[in-house]
Amino acid sequence: TRLAILISGRGSNMAALVYASRADDCPYEPVLVTGNKPDAPGLYLAEAEGVATARLDGKSAAFWDDLDKALRDHEVEMIALAGFMRIIPDQFIARWTGQIVNIHPSLLPKYKGIGTHKAAIEAGDTVTGATVHLVIPELDSGEILGQVEVAIMHGDTPDTLADRVLIAEHQLYPQVLSRYLGRKSDPEWLLDKVRSLAL
Ligand code: GRF
What we know:
By secondary structure, the chain is an alpha/beta fold. It has a single domain, classed as Rossmann fold (3-Layer(aba) Sandwich), CATH 3.40.50. It has seven helices and seven strands, in the order βαβαβαβαβαββαα. Helix 1 packs parallel to helix 6 and helix 5 crosses helix 6. Bound molecules: 5-O-phosphono-beta-D-ribofuranosylamine. 5-O-phosphono-beta-D-ribofuranosylamine (GRF) binds next to helix 1, strand 5 and helix 6. The site of 5-O-phosphono-beta-D-ribofuranosylamine has 15 residues, from helix 1, strand 5 and helix 6.
């Protein structure tokens, strides 16, 4: 599966997806790294790893059309958001239904949007984590594909917690994406889908 990874910043989750793709049995191939920040540090990292990039200007009125074109030019089949900090217009999501996944640093449905670690600490939670989910128009609300739990320790700040959750994200994202893409040919998964039609 030809994968595009969309970033806005440092791109450590992007790097984790790229490194994991080098395993022989990985069902996806990163063919494009792009996003809304033409000078995002992660774009340099992607280039150093030999993955094509497109430096698009998120402030341009044509941004979403430019992005769509870049994705089609690279014959992208699946899009992974990895620290992509723009709300995606419904119309764009509709064009790529079921083909966009995101990683979010909380145990969804808890703490949608930004500020997840601060919210979890302030709520007195002892466990938080990260979630990989399908992207639908409603923010951070699509089908959950996989989660990992991370303990909140006494004395954690949003920054120390973010660091610990990030390490878990790097393992979770490639694992869940590979399982999601791989399972399309998995007879058990197909049977489940057929059963869920409840005919
Ligand atoms: C990650 O914590 C991701 O879950 C959140 O933004 C952060 C991106 O980090 N949405 P990176 O750019 O992948 O290093």
